[in-house]
Here is the input.
Amino acid sequence: MVYPHIVTAADPLQSTIRLEELFGVLIEQGAGAAALVNSKLYGVLPFWDACKKAGIHGVLGLSVPVDFDGAALPVVLYAQNNTGYHMLLKLSSALATRDVEAIPQKWLVAYQEGLFCVIPDHAMWVLTDRSEAFGILSRLFGERLIASIERPGGMIKETESAFIDSCSSFGLQFMASHECRYIKEQDAFAYEVASAIGDGFKLSDPERGKPEHSSAFVPTKSQWAEWFSDHPEWLEQSRTLLMSCRVTISLNRQLLPKYPVKEGSDKHDVIRSLCLNGLQERVGELQQTYSDRLDYELGVISSMGYIDYFLIVSDFMAFARKKGILTGPGRGSSAGSLVAFALRITDVDPLAHGLLFERFLNPERVTLPDIDIDFADHRRHEVVEYVAKKYGALQTAQIITFGTLSAKAVARDTARVFGFEAEELEKISKLIPSRPGITLREALRESKALEEWIIGNETRERWFKTALRLEGLPRNSSIHAAGVILSPGPLVDYVPIEKGNDDIFITQWPMQELEAIGLLKMDFLGLRNLTILENMAHMLKRDRNMTIDYRNLPFDDQASFSLLAKGDTAGIFQLESPGMRRALMLIKPNAFGDIVAVNALYRPGPMEFIPLYARRKHAEEAVTYIHPVLEPILSETYGVIVYQEQIMKIAADMAGFSLGEADLLRRAVSKKSRQILDEEREHFVGGATEKGYTAKEAGDVYDLIVRFADYGFPKSHAVAYSMISYQLAYMKAHYPVQFYAALLSNSQGNNEKTAQFMREMKDRGIALAAPCIRNSRYGFSSEGQQVRAGLSTVKGVPGTAVKAILAARKNGPFESLFNIAERISAVHFTRKALEPLIKAGALDELGKDRAVLLASLDSAIKHAELVKPNEEPGLFDEMGSSFMKPKYTKAEPMPDGLKLDFEKEALGFYLSTHPVEREKEQRNKTYTALNDMPKKKDRERVEVLGLVEDVRRIRTKKGDAMAFVTLQDETGVASVTLFPKEYAQYNEMLDKDALLEIQGTAETRQGKTTIICKNIV
Here is the structure.
């Protein structure tokens, strides 16, 4: 039994066949061979791997259209051998990277070697005379050209005899074939729905292309034999063809790219020289410890064959520095490498921080090196483009990822295809919880309302069953956020590619498959916090002509530690969460090592040791060690094992392990396998007793290692990322104006963050100035001792209009509304652009009341249309502002209340005076500030005054109505809960923007404090 044409779900929405289901069926049917035939080379390696595990002969095919004088006729190409497999890589890549619908004949001529070409009995091969196409293929492939006959479900097509006649006239042999696109016959409908999702049609749409038949299931051995009982030779031919296809895919090779060096240069000498120069610049005169470590690391890197890799990374990091692109201090275990530090790949001196190279590259466990680099996120693409340019577009690619149909997505997509109304789609979204990873079955179990909505309604029941069949299937492809592949030769020699963005190809295989064949992945990560730091540095340079070098900040800055000890960490990378703030206030960092430790400890599991760490640090509890050998290793963390590197050092010092062996031990014990734990215990105790320790001492220390194996965090990563935390804390402590300006710019659109930073600025006495046509930049900026809101912060104003205003302003300040109109042209001077700017107060500098400016807007727009209708040089440009100047339209001054409303509308926040603040002054009464709610004790009485921002009404399990209200005052926001009794009493008062005085009690749950409403005055 052979299966010549299986389309898998790896080809998004072209099939519903999942490998785990497929191979159960194939094994059951005693399959001898199976061929993957997708429209691209998606899913090759998982299929290949599944075939090997099942003991089934795997065959690789590709379904492609070929261009015969404008007619795209389908063929199936099978790789006969490794040469044919490489031809498939090239053909699939060519078709996916060029703007062609079908393969030109000349490509087929170039890439036919090692391929079988099968002509399927599609109607288009016999609708008209195709003898020329038959002749071309026959001359090209000779005996490697075969015709295939399909009889789906045993049905003989009307065109079968005509097809046989055409093929016979060219002497072609015949094979039996069958396209499998779903597992069982009853899956035909789910497949039809998947196709409709992919094509964007409803089932009822007359334009939708329907499947030719409903028998594209995986047939049994008896069905297969029965369908072709009159031509058993066709079945034999299928078997012969598939079994003669012999391909091997080489895995786990080292397909490392080559770094170009001058002819005659030795790469060992090049990297050593670069390292020595780098170290002298970074640490000065080399001590013996540095020389020894450098020699050791270079020896390992060389023996593993990774010199080129380090040179490549060093080169693009040098490019980033040259272009002023801020890079991270390091990431992951690579910060443990002195070579990486010397080459300026990282900014972490591993000797100064006690980091281990073996945690990164272990000579006793050869794996590809993994250096992930963080770049300022808005400039990451520049580095990727540089790499593509330097190493060639054909050797550089980004990596494909496949989005799958999650529970909510598949439910909505399927419902849309079924023709459900908008209200029903909305209901589905509400009934399925938004929890990541939730399945439809879990949603049904958890939501009684969902079950009630489905049961008893035939259409909804069918909808849900169909969605269940499609859940988790690949839906579409996109580009991996960070991964870039560099290959030693043209990518198409190793992996199929397709068109990407910015002239950089993407691979047709995802990351795991690329790594399996030995291609090197490098992660170019965009980190928002580096963009923020870069922005702060630009502001300091612009405002104070001051250059800040983050790599050389003093690591003993008490102002920064004081800020962290107070938990004043809003906007500080990794230290912002309420739990992290509590940990910092407990530990009270006074050295960089404390920040590293808290970053490593603040995770589920190890966080239970934070109070112990704090007590020991503050000498409230004695630091104890179960054996003196541990003291030099654990003293930095007060006797608590925090880092993986500490486990490795213990094994090396006490049991005589090499650091490579110690890394293997660390990996092994973290798996918690009883057999491995016992084997490693024997190894550890044996090594320790040889060094003179007793078996009991060794056993106790081993038990400690096992206990902490899951808790240990790579210190190299903690040190590197703590540097970014420290840099931001330093900026907040010393340059708060630039700090908040950069943070506000980065938080545009996030009202909660914006409000939080504005509150902090107010507490620090830093003013937030309104957007201004004369002084504002694009985003928030620092201006003396205040932060200036940018023109782009005004809602609704197109970015193109803001850029046009800023460009025109370079030629001098604007004198009037009409002067702006003349200078930015009618293209940008529109009501949409200017009205929000006026409402936000950005044009107050012109000396006219906002009401006058709004009243004059129409005449200013007409003026722009007359004087400068487009951005081309105009007839009246030379005459300047003296020509035909309209007059402002008179209007009554705008009332303060309306001004405030307009500001909130245009900016999303109150800039002048918050209405709640004004109301509090008028009422002359003391209220609890909403940002003080987290400080309140459980059940403490509170009285608050605020504006209703949002109301979420729900029903309890008993069916009673209740509500959650988001309330806002000048200090922040808080959540108010109205249980059924209070809800019934006050429901009518719960309108958006209503001003409410609420009396109630504080309640803290899961770290969040809410107000339980008792009374609304």
User: Anything to note?
Assistant: DSSP finds 41 helices and 22 strands in the chain.
